[in-house]
Amino acid sequence: MTRLSRALGAALMGVFSPLALAAGLDMHKDPHCGCCSAWAEHMREAGFEVRLHDSPDMASIKQRLGVPQALASCHTATLTNDAGRRYLIEGHVPAEQVAWLLEASPDIDGLAVPGMPHGSPGMETGRLDDYAVLGFTADDARAMVVARYP
Q: What domains does the chain contain, in order, with CATH numbers?
């Protein structure tokens, strides 16, 4: 993550309301996926409530929820902001980006970290891959870079 992104993320985390950080995520994951459970723990440590749903057929869950196939990862979560807008969280998105999503309420359908990059939350393997958090709309699968890591 760039120095500016880290500073901005840290500053923004300081202004989020406790209510926003306590938002609940409904997370769908394969029952045998360890990295999914590690990501759920990362989110809990950041103050989010996480409700786990073991779903052996993740492809149909992603299709039903509207996750663009090109952005798919191993788990999919949904959450709703204070205004009632539902967002999708696909893959190993860092908690600070999810908090930003709730606070900023951008006109997107969700955030994604495609694939399973090493060093992303839940994928702490000792190796650090460069990866991007993408904002997307489900209807046309446009994606824009919201943040870059490491």
A: 3-149 (3.40.30.10)
H helix count then E strand count, the chain = 5, 7
Given a cut of 90, whether residue 91 has pLDDT beyond it is: yes
Long-range contacts, stretch 100-103, CB < 8 angstroms, 24+ apart: 100/9, 100/12, 100/146, 102/16, 102/20, 102/23, 103/12, 103/15, 103/16, 103/20
Among residues 103, 86, 95, the alpha carbon closest in space to that of 138 is found at 86
What pLDDT is attached to residue 23?
Answer: 78
Write out the two tokens for 83. Answer: 């205004």
Residue 37 burial by Cβ neighbours in a 10 Å radius (0-12, 13-18, 19+): middle
For the cut 90, the answer to whether the pLDDT of residue 94 exceeds it is: yes
3-state DSSP call for residue 43?
helix
* Residue spans of alpha helices (H) in 80-145: 95-104
Q: What is the DSSP letter of 109?
A: S
